[in-house]
Amino acid sequence: RVLVGTKVDETHANWVTAYNMLTGIRVAVSRTNAKLDRPLTDADFDVKQKSTFDIAGNELVPSAKYDFKFKDYAPWVFRHLRTLFRLDPADYLMSLTGKYILSELGSPGKSGSFFYFSRDYKYIIKTIHHAEHKFLRKILKDYYQHVKDNPNTLLSQFYGLHRVKMPYGRKIHFVVMNNLFPPHRDIHQTFDLKGSTVGRDYREDDLENNPRATLKDLNWLRRKRNIELGLQKKQLFLEQLYKDVRLLQRLQIMDYSLLVGIHDLQRGNEENLRDKTLRVFNPGGSGNTSEDFDPHSVLMRTPSKLENQRKARELRQMIQSEKPVPMGQTSSRMPDELEEGQNRPGFIFNQDDGGFRATHEDNAPGDEIYYLGVIDCLTHYGIIKKIEHFWKGLSSDRSQISALPPHEYGERFISFISSMAMSQEEAIRAAQERDAA
Ligand code: ATP
Ligand code: CA
Ligand code: CA
Q1: Does any ligand 1 atom lie closer than 6 A to the CB of residue 286?
Q2: Does residue 11 carry a pLDDT above 70?
């Protein structure tokens, strides 16, 4: 099997950026975690905490390899969000720190965002546009409240919002979020679905070279696919989806997708041999051929248990003492827990090996595990989209254009997903009724 992308070592252009991102996160997060917990205040949502890193370091900031500035946004809000999402603070830091090797995949896509995996594959760092950054800060209170009210939300889980700036460099904004897909399972098929058909097609001919490409709405329809959840699970899924989409509509958000990863239990894990290092890829979600990097086809290496235990100890000490451990002293290994499955206890849609197992109408378990979530949900229906809508509206069928206003976008999204969640029996009945009419 071919390893996609090129390894990024210390001489690679993105090495310094990634190093600075992780150093900043490590110092900022351990600083906040070291304090006694307290309830949030309104002011917490507007906080920006700035640190200046250099080779010398000082009492507040440890020395770093490179000069850079780091900003941590709303650190207390994200600390509380991480708790709501039940992350272990030590695990979080462990995943995002230490030595790392990068691998870069594809070239910048339409949105220009870069994606980096934590080396244990649990977290994704996504660079975002300044407009998305400003927007996330603006809606943070609504998002926080939604997560509090909806512990099983399908929306992207945001764990941190930060910025790095290198001398003479531009400002790079980024979020840390959940990787929807598990480190320990092959994902045999991936779909990025918006409920639109215009331009939502991955060229089937290209699948031969890239069998794990992210497929789109038309590929889904062509395969006459459905997700088979049985009555009860389907209701849980759709009810949560409605609530999430209502929020996105209210906040005037659009262009988001349902990301669906499918693990086929019959095929199992024949290819899961990934290198557990931090990796960067640029999938360019709007997706032309080479951008459709498949994050799941990366090789992984397994670390030793002793190394893990040592690192966990170091990190706990570091958190307790409020003194960050300088870079390089911690090992690059991942925590033990990862090697056993990835169940996230208490989360409905992660109950079956980190995902949601297919179930037939008669409640018999199916042969697939679905990994589901709503991603790319920071696009505000602003002026650009209005212009795009105007121009596209002159040519294609209006309801099929992807730049619909947020309310219509959400309705179309929900209706597409409700129909894809029909069981085979339901779909046959619906088709018969249609034919009869
Ligand atoms: P665009 O705006 O052009 O659609 P983008 O740069 O905003 O692209 P996204 O749409 O967020 O990128 O993501 C692109 C692809 O990256 C997705 O189709 C999916 O394959 C992968 N991806 C994104 N977020 C996640 C996630 N949380 N877990 C797993 N894979 C993800
Ligand atoms: Ca997208
Ligand atoms: Ca986007």
Answers
A1: yes
A2: yes
Q: Which atom of ligand 1 is nearest to the CA of 379?
A: 2
Nearest ligand to the CA of 259 is 1
DSSP per residue over 358-421, as a string?
EE-TTS-EEEEEEEEEEE----B--HHHHHHHHHHHHHS-GGG-S---HHHHHHHHHHHHHHHT
Report ipTM for this prediction.
Answer: 0.99
> How many angstroms does the Cα of residue 364 sit away from the middle of ligand 3?
38
The type of residue at 52 is: T
The full set of domains in the chain, from first to last, is 6-182+299-339 (3.30.800.10), 189-269+342-436 (3.30.810.10)
Question: Taking 60 as the threshold, does the pLDDT of residue 295 lie above it?
Answer: no
Amino acid at 428: I
The alpha carbon dihedral of 265, 266, 270, 271 has a sign of negative
Q: What is the mean pLDDT of the chain?
A: 80
Ligand 1 atom 20 nearest Cα: 214
Q: Which residue's alpha carbon is nearest to atom 11 within ligand 1?
A: 376
pLDDT for position 106: 35
Structure tokens at 132: 């998305």
* 154 CA to centre of ligand 2 in angstroms: 15
CA 315 to ligand 1 center in whole angstroms: 31
Residue 301 CA to ligand 3 centre (angstroms)? 31
Asked whether the predicted pLDDT for residue 178 surpasses 80, the reply is yes
The number of the ligand 1 atom at minimal distance from the alpha carbon of 179 is 28
What ligand is nearest to the CA atom of residue 380? Answer: 3
Distance, CA 280 to ligand 3 centroid (Å)? Answer: 17
What atom in ligand 1 is closest to the CA of residue 376? Answer: 11
Q: Which of 19-28, 146-155, 276-285 has the lowest mean pLDDT?
A: 276-285
Task: Give residue-wise pLDDT tens across range 232-285.
Answer: 999 999 999 999 999 999 999 999 999 999 999 999 887 654 444 445 555 543
Query: CA-to-CA distance for 431 and 436, rounded, in angstroms?
Result: 9
Cα(75)–Cα(53) distance, integer angstroms = 18
179 CB under 6 A from ligand 1? yes
Confidence (pLDDT) at 172: 96
Three-state DSSP class for 51?
A: strand
The pLDDT score that the predictor gives to residue 189 is 95
What spacing in Å lies between the alpha carbon of 324 and ligand 3's midpoint?
34
**Residue-wise pLDDT tens digits, 51-62:** 999 999 888 888
Neighbouring residues of 135: CB distance < 8 A, sequence distance ≥ 6: 378, 380
